[in-house]
């Protein structure tokens, strides 16, 4: 391993992976620190029992909720972070999400950058992840300067029939943009174990396959796995990160580089910043404003199962999005949000989540269901916080803006009934849902009200960047990964220019 690196990146998910790849491809050397290990390719990857019942790949963390009760978060510590298990939906935030949006319960604030600022990076992120898409039928789709790099994935017949019926009732569905290696030369077989599972074939375009491995191939990146970052150490004047204290193989050591990029996820990045409190930063590193850990958001989310007497033999189900009501439904003038199909639910996945559900009932239901998930925007409340209690992560949150979410769920329920699914089961995924965590180290131009600047550089510590979803001042209502990648690429280009006096070869 090379001894001196220009940059240390902490966390190998989409945020850290994108920065590592971009910097390395432009001549900068990077040391990537990851607390987990590589996810092995093995039969268990596609086993419902291993993934959902044994939770073989889920982190063994114990966190506290607002009442102080322990729970095991649905989070993953491995190379590639949560995207090893994601559904591959790589969808842009809407142009309006970057401005101020009124909701009945409050305001979703404007971002310090516009959609036009990030649009070229969305194109690059889509190209890196080879996103399959088509905006036809999506009334909320933002403008784009380049077409999708790959054609949309076609829906299977039963899903297409449901979309047709929904269309007849005035609701347009559209293709869900997806990051899988599908096509004449691709390795994706469009199986039923994608959403929530790692890909046994390595055909899901995730942070490992699309960012970390290409970064390593440059020869300028070293990765240390099973390397837990405990603290960031400040210089005497508090202006710079002087060292990164890690624990590995039972030993504590300090690693150093000129620039430090933090991307541990919106909860763990906060934990690290708060753990690093010292005399010069008594409230935690980068926390002069006091916003670190505040404004936690994760979307209001509900899973829906439309049940019919007819068997659903769809294998790859996750192909449709419903954005018809993203900004309102005509009668209700506030944004409702977005819905997308889930990967095909299987009986074992239901019994893992619903206690006492007999296996036979679960599998019969799953064989007859169409499965959706609805997301609506939650608002950034400063009292919704990630804090440390006796060193343990505590997530103290009170959900907000639920009315439009309930309305969206009602709309989708009614559409499913009209499409031939007379029984619709709904399961709110609200308690402890961390999959779309964001907002906790928000970016902005004012150091009094934000922790990092519009390029994700700490206002207080000139060589520190935070590039996971914590930068987001609002959550929008679609999945976050593509936006994390786009902003991380943008931040990396800024580092190249400002910190390394070079320009990106991949001009956005
Ligand atoms: C089941 C599931 C399905 C999802 N589906 C989608 C989807 O279809 N589309 C979408 O856009 N989003 C989806 N998401 C959300 C998406 O995966 C996340 O938004 C995204 O992966 C976050 O990336 P990140 O780099 O910010 O953080 P992470 O992916 O959490 O990566 C952080 C990395 O940092 C490491 N780390 C943490 N703390 C430390 C430390 N102290 N020291 C060293 N390393 C550390 C972790 O091990 C991890 O590898 C899904 C999430 C889940 C859980
Ligand atoms: S659908 Fe394709 S990418 Fe997803 S797990 Fe199956 S083979 Fe892998």
Written overview of the protein:
The mean pLDDT is 96. The strands form 5 sheets. Strands 7-14-15-16-13-19 form a 6-stranded antiparallel β-sheet. 22% of the residues lie in helices and 18% in strands. The protein is of the alpha/beta class. The longest helix is centred in the last third of the chain and has 18 residues, at 481-498. It has 10 helices and 20 strands. Helix 1 runs parallel beside helix 5 and helix 1 (14-24) packs parallel to helix 10 (481-498). The protein has one domain: FAD/NAD(P)-binding domain. Bound molecules: flavin-adenine dinucleotide and iron/sulfur cluster.
- Which small molecules are bound? flavin-adenine dinucleotide, iron/sulfur cluster
Average residue-wise pLDDT? 96
The amount of beta strand, in percent, is 15-25%
Give the CATH topology.
FAD/NAD(P)-binding domain
Which residues form runs of ≥5 with pLDDT under 50? none
Key phrases:
single chain; 508 residues; alpha/beta; FAD/NAD(P)-binding domain; 6-stranded antiparallel beta sheet; 10 helices; 18% strand; binds flavin-adenine dinucleotide; binds iron/sulfur cluster
Summarize the model shown:
With 508 residues, the protein is an alpha/beta fold. 22% of the residues lie in helices and 18% in strands. It has a single domain (7-498), classed as 3-Layer(bba) Sandwich (FAD/NAD(P)-binding domain), CATH 3.50.50.60.
């Amino acid at each position: 391993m090379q001894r001196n690196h220009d940059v240390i990146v902490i966390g190998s998910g989409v945020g850290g992976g994108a920065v590592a790849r971009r910097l390395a491809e432009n001549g900068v050397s990077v040391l990537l620190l990851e607390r987990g290990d590589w996810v092995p390719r093995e039969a268990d990857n596609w086993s419902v029992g291993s993934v959902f019942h044994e939770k073989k790949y889920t982190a063994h963390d114990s966190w506290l909720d607002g009442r102080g009760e322990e729970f095991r978060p649905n989070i993953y510590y491995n190379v590639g972070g949560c995207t090893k298990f994601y559904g591959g939906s790589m969808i842009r935030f809407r142009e309006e999400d970057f401005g101020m949006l009124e909701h009945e319960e409050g305001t979703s604030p404007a971002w310090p950058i516009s959609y036009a600022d990030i649009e070229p990076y969305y194109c690059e992120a889509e190209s890196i992840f080879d996103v399959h898409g088509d905006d036809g039928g999506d009334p909320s789709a933002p403008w784009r300067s380049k077409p999708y790099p790959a054609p949309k994935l076609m829906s299977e017949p039963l899903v297409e029939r449901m979309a047709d019926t929904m269309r007849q009732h005035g609701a347009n569905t559209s293709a869900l943009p997806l990051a899988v290696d599908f096509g004449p030369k691709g390795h994706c077989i469009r199986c039923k174990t994608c959403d929530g599972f790692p890909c046994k074939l390595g055909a899901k375009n995730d942070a490992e396959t699309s960012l970390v491995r290409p970064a390593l191939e440059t020869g300028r990146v070293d990765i240390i796995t099973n390397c837990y970052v405990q603290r960031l150490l400040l210089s005497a004047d508090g202006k710079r990160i002087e060292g990164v204290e890690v624990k590995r193989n039972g030993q504590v050591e300090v690693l150093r580089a000129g620039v430090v990029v933090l991307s541990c996820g919106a909860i763990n990045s906060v934990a690290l910043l708060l753990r690093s409190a010292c005399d010069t930063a008594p409230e935690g590193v980068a926390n002069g404003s006091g916003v670190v850990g505040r404004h936690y958001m994760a979307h209001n989310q509900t899973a829906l199962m439309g049940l019919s007497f007819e068997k659903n033999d769809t294998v790859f189900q996750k192909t449709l999005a419903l954005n018809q009501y993203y900004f309102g439904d005509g009668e209700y003038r506030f944004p409702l949000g977005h819905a997308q199909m889930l990967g095909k639910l299987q009986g074992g996945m239901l019994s893992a989540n619903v206690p006492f559900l007999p296996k036979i009932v679960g599998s019969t239901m799953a064989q007859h269901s169409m499965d959706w998930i609805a997301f609506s925007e939650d608002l950034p409340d400063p009292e919704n916080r990630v804090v440390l209690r006796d060193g343990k992560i505590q997530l103290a949150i009170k959900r907000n803006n639920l009315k439009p979410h309930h309305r969206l769920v009602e709309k989708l329920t009614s559409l499913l009934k009209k499409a031939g699914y007379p029984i619709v089961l709904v399961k709110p995924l609200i308690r402890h849902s961390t999959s779309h965590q964001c907002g906790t180290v928000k970016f902005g131009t004012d150091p009094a009200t934000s922790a990092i600047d519009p390029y994700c550089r700490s206002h207080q510590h000139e060589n520190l960047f935070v590039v996971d979803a914590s930068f987001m001042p609002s959550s929008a209502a679609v999945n976050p990964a593509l936006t994390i990648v786009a902003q991380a690429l943008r931040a990396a280009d800024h580092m190249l220019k400002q910190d390394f006096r070079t320009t990106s070869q991949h001009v956005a």
